[in-house]
């Protein structure tokens, strides 16, 4: 099964996701092929994305790189200043050009996966193509970047963290879930971290904790570690289910073994078994 892969390649995690997926393909676990990689950065935009682009070229995947940073920069700056209509126009014009450049590839894939793609997709592109996004929260959970999600889980004193793969729609991080998994963040070994956070919050706001400690804060770091460990298994199991016909689309409705799967498919047990098997092989 051919799929498309969209990434900004902005950090090590984006590269790691692609590397791990290619390993799963070469091992025979994933019966898919990555038909193309699209990156919204070109060489010279940033050191991290240069590393990503070099890796894609090294492994021989078809690559289309088109810099969003260099595309109509004056229009983009006007949109970023708060003019939402201008920003929507920039997104439309940018992704119209993306569609033109990817036309030969997009005809060949049933869907593309956004794996670390940091742009908001234009409404028109969402409507025209089936795109799946990895989001680091359970269905109905916090929206935004993964850092925002982790802090919001702490703010809510949540019982669970998780990850989902959902269909991309014009409303950010709100498309229909395809699959998801959850992990408890209230286990006995984590209670001291929660207690430590509660002590901090007696004398300062959460915003002050964020400013002072950032991603190094122990509770934040542990939640992210547990959540992140389940992202690759969820991606791989979801792709495997599509390739084997268990998951399918009818239009942009998700079906599991031929039946509508409103709310997505819970793959928590499968993800935990995947992780357990990986640990046993080490």
Q: Can you walk through the features of this model?
A:
The structure is a single chain. With 282 residues, the chain is an alpha/beta fold. It has one domain (2-281): Rossmann fold, CATH 3.40.50.170. 47% of the residues lie in helices and 18% in strands. It contains eleven helices and eleven strands. Strands 3-2-1-4-5-6-7-11 form an eight-stranded mixed β-sheet, with helices on both faces. A three-stranded antiparallel β-sheet has the order 8-9-10. Helix 6 (146-156) packs across helix 9 (218-228).
Q: How would you summarize this macromolecular structure in one to three sentences?
A:
By secondary structure, the protein is of the alpha/beta class. The protein has 11 helices and 11 strands. The protein has a single domain, classed as Formyl transferase, N-terminal domain (Rossmann fold).
Number of discrete domains = 1
Write out the strand line-up for the largest beta sheet, numbering strands in chain order: 3-2-1-4-5-6-7-11
| Protein structure class | alpha/beta
Report on the biggest sheet: 8 strands, mixed
User: If you compute it from the alpha carbons, what radius of gyration comes out, rounded to the nearest whole angstrom?
Assistant: 19 Å
Which keywords apply here?
eight-stranded mixed beta sheet; globular; Rossmann fold; three-stranded antiparallel beta sheet; single chain; 47% helix; 11 helices; 282 residues; alpha/beta
